[in-house]
Write a structure and sequence with these properties.
The chain is an alpha/beta fold. 35% of the residues lie in helices and 19% in strands.
């Protein structure tokens, strides 16, 4: 019985962690946004330095809890390197009262993010 409870809790945890975030559109370009929308790069410093996003704020997902107050404005476009990173950052930002309007996935040195 205890093993069944542990298995159920593990399945629920994994489902909640990897479940896609709904209501946020993927876009390859964020240049046409108004000035009141912040671009937040949650990739690791080593990845974001290889492929800089001009005008973005770089706060890796590991430091987001500590430095989220440095984000200007309440509407955000997220740049992430993976689906998991994107999901975790969007969920965190929503809990803190931000509105995430879009995201871009950038893997390695590619710039299209798709």
């Amino acid at each position: 019985m205890l093993l069944l409870a542990i298995a159920v809790i593990t399945v629920i945890y994994l489902f909640m962690r990897y479940r896609p975030v709904k209501g946020v559109d993927c876009s390859a370009s964020y240049d046409n946004y108004p000035d009141n929308i912040s671009v937040l790069d949650v990739r690791d410093y080593s990845q974001s330095n290889k492929n800089l996003s001009e005008g973005s704020i770089n706060i890796p997902i590991a430091y987001l809890n500590r430095y989220y107050h440095e984000i200007k404005g309440k509407e955000i476009h997220v740049i992430a390197s993976s689906q998991l990173e994107k999901n975790m950052s969007i969920r965190f930002l929503r809990k803190k009262g931000f509105s995430v309007i879009g995201y871009t996935l950038r893997k390695g040195d590619t710039t299209n993010g798709l």
